[in-house]
Specification:
Elements: E1 2-9, H1 13-29, E2 34-42, H2 46-56, E3 60-62, H3 65-70, E4 76-79, H4 86-95, E5 100-103, H5 110-119, E6 127-130, H6 137-147, E7 154-162, H7 185-201, E8 205-213, E9 218-220, E10 228-230, E11 236-243, E12 248-254, E13 263-270, E14 273-278, E15 284-289, E16 303-307, H8 327-343, H9 352-371, E17 375-376
Parallel strand pairs: 1-2, 1-4, 2-3, 4-5, 5-6, 7-12
Antiparallel strand pairs: 7-13, 8-11, 8-17, 9-10, 11-12, 13-14, 14-15, 15-16
Helix pairs in contact: 1-8, 5-9, 7-9
Amino acid sequence: MTVYRVGVIGAGMMGKTHAWCWQSIPFFYGASEFRCVLTGVATSRMESARAACEAYGYRKAYDSALAMIEDPEIDIIDIASPNKFHREALLSAHRAGKPVYCDKPLTGSLEAARDIERAIPEPEKAGQMVFHNRFFPATLRARQMIESGDLGEIICFRGAYLHSGNALPGKRMNWKDRRDYGGGTLYDLGSHLIDLVTWLCGSGFQELQARQKTLYPLRPSLEDPSILAEQDSDDMTLITGSLKNGAIGTLEASKIATGAQDEIRFEIHGTKGALRYNLMEPNYLDYYNIADPEAPLGGTSGFKRIHCIRRYPAPADFPAPKSTIGWLRGHLHCLYNFIESHHRYRTFDPSIARGIELEKALDAAARSARNGAKVSL
């Protein structure tokens, strides 16, 4: 059996999520040709790295990400650190010949993404991005149906990723609110939304225009909550645009959607039918077939609810396919897709190349919001 020794950079929310995923693979996917071991962890402080070893079972704490990347006892690098640190870690891993599993967005900076593009000739072979919203049975099924022509030609789309965490005026700023860390709602939530909707529609943006809003320009600072600091990022971005396949639509990423929890949703309309989905009801995908008769008395027309639930293909075998699904399961299947691709020598998807492509779209939206003009991609 092949053993992959994994080193994770970061032990915060996403580092913890990834650690759970690495350890959970054998429970959810049964017997396998490979095994993954949580071998190393590196964080901004040695104390927190040692604490992660105690809490999550890592074998070794490192005093820097570079030291872990260069250690020959580490085979795979998992980047779960703040966005601004991704470039250095990714390029170091590439020089060391190690594949990366990189949290989104790729860098939070077009300049940094272009550095990666110049340094890595084949970014589709360098690693995978963590766009886990692709990896629920409902969103995988939506992609299948669109690819098979069930919707016909895509006419239009609308998507939204809604949180409410920044709606309160006294909420303390965190690194995801700061542009120097690669943060902002556009980059944090918008990266997921743009990836998901354009992947489903099978086409990237041809042209877009964006507007942004920051609800409270001054917030308690990251370093000292007794001091108010300027928030230089958006709380909300609204994008209108057209795709290269001719479809038009809107995307909204917001952390000031009062009452929202973790709501990513889409509606996609085509000449033969439509699909709709909401992460708050992740077990279901709704499908409308224009061919269903409306008579008599409505016939069988209307949206049909498909019970996708936990119906992953083999070797996924736990829990039962009828068991309700949750947020962590999408993350687990995303990571399994990465390690399975690596083990089978398959091209990664969504790859680092996809991360670069999305940085260009994110930067275009940010530029449009600043100057009010349409931007072509």
